[in-house]
Amino acid sequence: MSKLTRYALFFLACYFESSLNILILAQTNIPYYACDNFFNYTRNSSFERNLDRILANLPLTNSGYGFFNSSSGQGPDAASAIALCRGDIESIPCGICVNNSIVELRKICPNQKDGSIFYDNCMVKYSDEYLLGSTKMKYRIVDWRADNVTDDAPSFNRDLLNLLNNLTVEAAAGGSLRKYAANTMTRPNSEVTYGLMQCTPDLSRQQCTNCLKDAVSQMVENKVYGKVGARVNLPKCNMRYEKYRFYNDAPIIPQPDSPPPESQQSSSGTFQIYILVHMAVVIN
């Protein structure tokens, strides 16, 4: 059993909305989940048929780097779903995680129009709202470990925020296949902290930046200071840090092939000028 002390703090996306979304945190071995109980669907409805269709199709839509999306229907019957595996997870365990998440999510949110589930290796979300490119926040989950750092807490927090800010920039700079970053910081007492930040790759650079800054602000607002580990799960991004390495090296996204060299001929004879074209992409 994890030693993680579980505190889930949920916030409405808009504090002035008249409707109250009731969200549920998992109390079983599932790390975290949320069901929006304010909007339910009826059995055998068009929405349920569309939801069944997209969740059955979702595991087949892997972008190649752990992002999945599926949608079906129009108007009030439309359903949309996404899944995101942690950036270092290989294809097979990623697919297993997504499949298991779908099964569990249907059990714990049996008739809700919006539901999310978060495992360590992946997350799955479905909704009656279109999800691609959206940054709407219905909830925020903040969780931290009970243990405190053993050295100077204010200095640790400053170093941690620097690490998270750097990871935010790196993750947001990722391309349309993956927006993910992981790195470490080493304290003067030689203790290492491992950090990870990730957005769904359908977000723009600015959307990802804003989402991750919101995640960090939730940690700050809830006074998660001097703790040896914490995480924040939002619908389209997440962050985590621990005193142990909880991730592996992420698969490399290959660079596109460079075009072949061009040749030119002068009036005084034939010679070749090789123009080496370097195609660069950001590797997360």
UniProtKB/TrEMBL annotation:
- TM segment ranges: 7-26
Identify the Pfam families for this entry: Stress-antifung (PF01657)
CDD domains documented for this protein:
Gnk2-like
The entry's keywords: Membrane, Repeat, Signal, Transmembrane, Transmembrane helix
Q: Which residues are in the Gnk2-homologous domain?
A: 29-131, 137-246
What protein name does the entry list? Gnk2-like domain-containing protein
